[in-house]
Each structure stands twice: as structure tokens, then as C-alpha cells.
Amino acid sequence: MTPGQEAGQGWSAPYQADGYHDAGRPLPVEAEQLWEVNAGWWQEAFTAGADAEYEEQIIPLLARQLGSVRPGRALDIGCGEGQLSRVAAGVEGTRHVVGIDPTRSQLSVALERTGAWVDNGAGAGADAAGGDAAGAGAPRSGQSGATGSGDDGMSGHETGTVAGARVTYARASAASLPFADASFDAAFACLVFEHIEGTAGALAEVGRVLVPGGTFVLLLNHPLLQAPGSGWVDDQILGEQYWRIGPYLVEHHGVEEVDKDVWVPFVHRPLSVYVNAMADAGLYLTRMEEPAPPEGFLARAEEYREAAAFPRLLMLRAEKLARRR
Predict the structure, then answer these.
(1) Which one of 96, 212, 252, 262 has the lowest number of neighbouring Cβ atoms within 10 Å?
(2) Residue 162 maps to a domain
(3) Beta-carbon neighbour count of residue 210 at 10 Å?
(4) Is 140 a member of any domain?
């Protein structure tokens, strides 16, 4: 389920073709290409003010969480076309935001929308964004860094400026962040981890690149209420309305049709998988929020208001332990 998706759409069990994929096993790497294919759909439906849940809920929520810690250096994991990187850049105290994403067609638009950018040797336009750059920031051991550097010791390939803060984009995945240990004061991921494999490894990477005391903000489709098979049921025979919960404790790896002819990877995991992996990475939970759907979403159809007491979004905020126990 993605924000802005119609109620009941995408809340049934994700597609699984007989003989193609066992939903209990990780998706094949080819599934990642669906984001490349559908980048334009995402940009049109969920960015630049198009989606009420982003505009009224996700963006203000993230800005508040980051604003409470005022990170000098922030990492946007799975940045897409960069709208939340630009939000983070507008937070008071932020000097440099780095957005990483494996999708070339997202990064090329991120560069366009961020504004003027400088070529530090990686080429120009979409080719620069899509190159297999080591990334922005000090490279981890065994990786070559990008050319050029800023006054905070971070270096990058494609850089723009938003509200006085540098915004840099690099092509990379959550599973292997191309940065040295303790490179960032804060990191965040919005509606990313439910679409990727290797959650434990990716969260371990978050813990590695954060400074001691650094903040991690994780925004997810609510795992309990958005489990495959969950959804609002209006029983006309019994005269009852209720929220049906699918098999919550069962991990499900599938490909979901989120709009007509638009398919994306979706992995359902119990909340405990995320919380325990964060703990293993030295990230302890400091805040959790389950906001009600925003008015802009509820206003789309009268029947949506019947499900207004059920959250679609979950926010977890964690802090990296100064010293592992």
C-alpha cells in the first residue's frame, strides 16, 4: 500500500503468479527494476503537492522530527525524486542533506527539481545521477570517494542548494551505504523499507553511518493494519462494518498492483522485525506515532471516514546508542 492509494486498493494479498514466486522467500533482484519502470507514476501521483497524505501528514511529521534534533548532516535513504531531501534541507540547523536511491530515473528528476547543481566530475544530467558513484560523503573502507568536497568534509557528485543547505544525490542502495562510519547526525527513510529485501542489513547500515546519539526516523505503511489481506469490510447482510486484519505474523514477499497496470515490490513484516533489527543495530526507540489519516485523504470519499480511526502510517524514531551494550 502506498500513501494516497484508494481505500481497498492494494489492501488485498499482493499478486503471486503460480509457479513464479514463493511469497515466503525474498523477491528476485529483477523486481527492483519495477521502480525504474514506474518512477514517472510515482512522481506524478505523490510529489509536488499531488498527494494529500504527503502534504498534510508525512512532510509536516518528518519536518517536526528533524526539527527537534536540528541535524547538521542528514541522510535520506530511498530519496526518490528528492522531495523529502528538500524538506530536510529546509530544517533549521541543517547544512548538508544526502539523498541516495538506486533508481536512475528518480535521481535525474531529483537533480532537476533541486535546482542548480554542480558537476564534480561525474558527468551531467541523468547519466551523472545514474552512474555507479561511490556517493556523497566520506567513502567507507575499500571504496573510492567522489571528487569535490564541502566545508563539512562531505564530498559528492551532484549538488544543489535548498534554503542555504547543500543537497547531494548519489546512486546507492540501503543495503550498502557508501559512507564512512559516523558520517551523519540523522537519517530517515519514508515508505522504503516495506519495498526492499534485507531489512536487518539495511538497518545495521543506518546504525553504522550515524554518529553516536544520532537520530533515525522510519516511516512505514502500518504493518499491523496493512498486512496482506487486510481492509475495510462493509457487510451489507449483517449490517456490520469492521477492519479485517490479514495474517500479520507471516512475512510476505510479493509484487502488488498499486494502480492500474502499475506493479511494485511489497514486503510485509511484523513490527517486531523492524524494532528488533533496530535494537541489534544499536538504535533504541524514543518515539512512536500512529497518526489518523489526514483530512485531505478522508475527503476523497464518504466511506473513507468510516475507517478514520485506523492508521495507515507508522512513525518510529530512534537514537543511536553512544556505546553498545
Answers:
(1) 212
(2) no
(3) 27
(4) no
Cell 552512474 found at = 131
Q: What is the CATH number of the domain that holds 248?
A: 3.40.50.150
Q: How many domains does the chain have?
A: 1
Are 188 and 216 in contact by the 8 Å Cβ rule? The answer is yes
Judged by DSSP in three states, 85 sits in helix
Q: How far is CA 58 from CA 135, 213, 292, 322, in A?
A: 26, 24, 12, 28
Task: Quote the domain boundaries for residue 65.
Answer: 29-103+171-320
Q: How far is CA 141 from CA 69, 176, 192, in A?
A: 28, 12, 26
Residue 14 within a domain: no
In a domain, residue 157? The reply is no
How far apart CA 261 and CA 258 sit, in angstroms, is 8
Taking only the tens place, the pLDDT of each residue in 51-103 is 999 999 999 999 999 999 999 999 999 999 999 999 999 999 999 999 999 99
Which pTM was predicted?
0.82
What is the signed CA dihedral for 73, 78, 83, 88, rounded to 10 degrees? -20
Beta bridge partners of 220: 314
8-state DSSP, 230: -
Residue in the block written with cell 569535490: 148
Phi, psi of 15 (to 5 degrees): -60, 140
- For residue 54, CA distances in Å to 2, 3, 204, 240, 295 come to 11, 7, 27, 31, 12
